[in-house]
Amino acid sequence: MTPLMISVGSNKVALAHQLLESGANPNIAKKDGDTALHIACYYGHVKMVRQLLKFNADPCALKADGWTPLMVAIPSNHVKVIEILLKQGKVDPNMQNKNDGDNPLLIASWNNCTDIVQVLLSNGADPNITKHDGWTPLIAASLLGHLSIVEALFQKGAFINTQAKDGVTPIYVASQDGHAMVVRFLLEKGADFYLTKTDSETSITTSPLVIACQNGHSNVVELLLEKDIEQINTRNPESGATPLFIASYHGQAAVVKLLLMRGANPSIKDKNKQTPIDVTKDNLCKEILREAGAIETKQALPQRIISNAKNFTTRLVGNLRRRFIGSSN
What we know:
Shape: elongated
Largest sheet: 2 strands, antiparallel
Radius of gyration: 29 Å
Number of strands: 2
CATH topology of the largest domain: Serine Threonine Protein Phosphatase 5, Tetratricopeptide repeat
CATH superfamily of the largest domain: Ankyrin repeat-containing domain
CATH class of the largest domain: Mainly Alpha
Order of helices and strands: HHHHHHHHHHHHEEHHHHHHH
């Protein structure tokens, strides 16, 4: 830490000015790459930022992690600092972290900094800028349920069906985390709810409806079914599982009930010849499925017999052990 950095961190503007006038170099960096300007931006010291820029502090200096002063100011929502860097510092709002492609608009979207998103977009930030993994600001905002940011990005031309390298789309991640208001907005704007994500290990595809069923988001399931009720009995091309099968397997009783009320067929089998009632371990799900007429398949009975046999054996061994130990005493 240099004397200038210490004065900047303490927001001692007069002392920092004196040091700069005396020839202190504002671009000296710590081991982690932090410069005096990084520090001022992190703390949101507006006057200090202006002063450092007047003394030729580098507004594009990179930390070891690839973050610029502009990026550092975003998580704490220092809007005024952002405006100064863009105008006085003439910083490119689309400058990306070379390590992972992180960028100001994506960081602001992650951190729910609506005002900063608006400032960046007004100063030329690309709403479709991507990280190295293909994630965009819209995907990030949708994942976290930041509706105002989703709306702002869409209004500036963000691609609503953008798909990252892992296959996720804005409506997929919003459905996954149960952000019904975001899902509703995306559907109204024409989001493709048939686009699927493919698991890199199992190669099984998952749709927004299926992931919402898996995670128990009934309100999202309702919205997606309103758009197309026909998908309610769609079988997964790899596993043969239906949305009801997935909801049952994961013990999502409220979703199971909703799907059955909307016409889901409890008798459709997956590729292992099992039905939803065969795979659920949740008693409430079983009860709901039985009330809907579901019957356990013959294929499931051997497993139940084996399970009962194991339980019987365990009890028998326990009784014999107690008798043996009791008689030996």
